Amino acid sequence: MAAGLNVAVVGVTGAVGQTTLKILEERKFPVKDLRAFASERSVGKTVTFKGETIRVEKVGPGAFTGVDVAFFSAGSAQSKEYAPQAVKAGAMVVDKSSAFRMDPSVPLVVPEINADAARSHQGIVACPNCTTIVTVMPLKPLHEAGRLRRVIATSYQAVSGAGVQGVEELARQTLAWARGEAITPKFFDHQIAFNVIPHIDKFGAGGYTGEEMKLVSEVRKILDLPDLPVSPTTVRVPVFTAHSVAVNAETELKVTCARAREAFAGFPGLRLWDEPAEGRYPMPVTVEGQDDCFVGRIREDISLPNALNFWVVGDQLRKGAALNGVQIAELLIR
Amino acid sequence: MAAGLNVAVVGVTGAVGQTTLKILEERKFPVKDLRAFASERSVGKTVTFKGETIRVEKVGPGAFTGVDVAFFSAGSAQSKEYAPQAVKAGAMVVDKSSAFRMDPSVPLVVPEINADAARSHQGIVACPNCTTIVTVMPLKPLHEAGRLRRVIATSYQAVSGAGVQGVEELARQTLAWARGEAITPKFFDHQIAFNVIPHIDKFGAGGYTGEEMKLVSEVRKILDLPDLPVSPTTVRVPVFTAHSVAVNAETELKVTCARAREAFAGFPGLRLWDEPAEGRYPMPVTVEGQDDCFVGRIREDISLPNALNFWVVGDQLRKGAALNGVQIAELLIR
Fold it and tell me: Which of A35, B68, B121, B249 has the most C-beta neighbours closer than 10 Å?
């Protein structure tokens, strides 16, 4: 271990892949050799890691031979195809896609919340969806303080949650507007500049989107509360990075604002920015680039005795994805 | 009446004042003479109404002599000072400010909902806050269908809700970004371009903002449900025009999605855009400039038996302000 590990990043040219490289460096993850994988069209490109230039390869036969830890952020189809190959080759897989999250044999882990679950892995540990992570971080200490009874989560999600193309689309449309040109949607279904789109992922049963149902099922699995009532609304907003979620949470026991603040402030990975009189509350532009999730606007719900409203913001490329993945890997190699 | 009415618009150069002129024209409101009032710094400017150029005046002694209907959208302090003068001079006042909304002797009216309340006026009829109007429009038919028990409203509010300066601020910051320059906040407390700000109006008791508490008290007054539990979160987003609200509404009686759709579609001023499979749901850029409010994303709440989630969008300068004001005036002169 002192000599380091052979690490593979699959989907290395994507927004999460790039952030994974950054975080492996920042946290001094013991990397001996780094292999950079991406799709066919990125082969030949290079990425930089610890000052070294690394050629991007396509996953082929024997790709994972000798790899100790593989981070997957290339999409669900790629994970389904290649993650079992990596496991077979002896690698531990940290999967950022939705491929295995709800598989009962695969732990779904946010290290601050359910690190123990990772121990039972059979080669793959899944990393939750970005919106799930940002939402579940304050839910855990609140559950410990008063036992969750019902959660209503309403999101404001950044375009980089949809990857590099989402960022390009917002930038392109905004620049077109600045030049006085017409705005045309290419990547998102509708204009995203100066608009909000109440639709992320595909529509499914009951009119809920895939993103909304991920939030429900993943929060339940991470908190080990399989029947927790969760009501989700997920919305894309013209923000580059960091997801915000307005949460209404009902508890069995009364949790005062003071008690909630204490619980949030004492939870690792969570920080309290809740001084409204000073105009201090979390926002995407102040949270972007930060590792922690930030909670503010904590209010007792005036419509119900045992409920709280609060506002949580997290950099969904970092804690919402790459950082959480690297934290999982740190657990696995311990 | 056939000869028309003398109409005054106070705050004529503002976003709502300008829209009021447009709507008076569009709806062929019987205007004989129009007087255009604004603050000192706008005196000497002109506005256009029905092709005529009208000089902007300052409200002075005798300003409302002979005026039949006065629309106030200059702010609360101005309404408090001048609306009683206008009433004394014999005018009927439609007040768009928050000055008199919660005054028990002043009706607070959304014509589709509580037109009857306007009859009891003593000179002033108040027009609700923009977010209230957009939120309360679908709540009324839902209440008729199943009796409201609790409402959780989470908003995505456009910058023009803060007036012309809000629009200028978003445009200025976005253009600075396009030129690669630093973004500086001047009008809003924080950067609004590519950001969301969970703070509208001043903070008050319990950590709620004025905007949030307006939503609570005004919805209750309009629906004549003084104890209705309402839980509000209001957020500014980088959108020019049209407010969106994610609503979770619990009812005494079960209201199915089908029944809710029917109730919404049959309510005047409300339209249904709820064909998710076709990517059809309301959004600010498709609703801007429209008179009606639009509802979509109607889903049974999976976390509670008798509750629905839906998404409502309205042009807050039109139905959320100027149009509602002109509709009130139409009631008054009937």
Answer: B249
